[in-house]
Specification:
Subcellular location: Membrane
Shape: globular
Number of helices: 12
Membrane topology: Multi-pass membrane protein
Number of domains: 1
CATH superfamily: Glycerol uptake facilitator protein
Structural class: mainly alpha
Distance between the termini: 53 Å
Main location: membrane
GO molecular function, one term: channel activity
Radius of gyration: 23 Å
Oligomer: single chain
CATH topology: Glycerol uptake facilitator protein
InterPro entries: Aquaporin-like, Aquaporin_transptr, MIP, MIP_CS
């Protein structure tokens, strides 16, 4: 019996208890709450990294519009949905491009590629107002150029096939479209907050996660759900670029929905994540 007790003690010392996971694994050493970004940071304008980040947002949004609008037009051109990639293919194009582009630009600009994402992160004080405005301007310019290149390749077909512009489809009201844009953008921005949460990464460091993957997958799922309603905006730059280049009255009639909806959805996601999930306003300050 004594020999067995010694074996047990030896085993207990040799094979220590596994590191706790989840909340119990959180310590002050592996995570500290990052300070909120200043509202205005004039020094950013003198930094090359600031301008480089804006250029990255421009190029990423340009490529995003180029690939996705071409995909939409390819589906619209086909005599039947079965003769093309269909709605599923459109959803994969949008989600796949976001996955690829966020992966490529996250280390440079954060990989926003969407004014709604930028707005949500600004409300959470993740970036300054100066940078947020710069990003949104560059995203819109990139979207306009991306849609413009598509039209340059096939101007006549672009006009006939709708140019990938977002509209509220027949059978749905403006309220339906607005609600779809709010909820869809909430899903996207909430996923962005969760996938890039520094506290979660520190706490669950034993669980490998590639942030662009859930973000791209969220875009894919939202497109599957809302393409029949609005064609899926959830990105004001994407909607603006297609509307400007297509430039038809019906593309502008409901255009406000594709700004108000995403911005409201992004604001709700930021509030939910910061107040409910992270409970930042209720934390005691050291």
């Amino acid at each position: 019996m004594e020999g067995r007790e010694e074996d047990v003690k030896l085993g207990a010392n040799k094979f220590i208890e596994r590191q706790p996971i989840g909340t119990s694994a959180q310590t002050d050493k592996d995570y500290k709450e990052s300070p909120p970004a200043p509202l205005f940071e004039p020094g950013e304008l003198q930094s090359w990294s600031f301008w480089r980040a804006g250029i990255a947002e421009f190029v990423a949004t340009f490529l995003f519009l180029y690939i996705t609008v071409l995909t939409v037009m390819g589906v619209n051109r086909a005599p039947t949905k079965c003769a093309s990639v269909g709605i599923q293919g459109i959803a994969w194009a949008f989600g796949g491009m976001i996955f690829a582009l966020v992966y490529c630009t996250a280390g440079v600009s954060g990989g926003h590629i969407n004014p709604a994402v930028t707005f949500g992160l600004f409300l959470a004080r993740k970036l300054s107002l100066t940078r947020a405005i710069f990003y949104i301007v560059m995203q819109c310019l990139g979207a306009i150029c991306g849609a413009g290149v598509v039209k340059g390749f096939q101007p006549s077909r672009y006009e006939v096939l709708g140019g990938g512009a977002n509209v509220v489809n027949h059978g749905y009201t403006k309220g339906d479209g607005l609600g779809a844009e709010i909820v869809g953008t909430f899903v996207l921005v909430y996923t962005v907050f969760s996938a890039t949460d520094a506290k979660r990464n520190a706490r669950d460091s034993h669980v490998p996660i590639l942030a662009p993957l859930p973000i791209g997958f969220a875009v894919f799922l939202v497109h599957l759900a809302t393409i029949p309603i609005t064609g899926t905006g959830i990105n004001p730059a994407r909607s603006l670029g297609a509307a400007i280049i297509y430039n038809r009255d019906h593309a502008w009639d409901d255009h406000w929905i594709f700004w108000v909806g995403p911005f409201v959805g992004a604001a709700l996601a930021a509030l939910y994540h910061q107040i409910v999930i992270r409970a930042i306003p209720f934390k005691t300050r050291a």
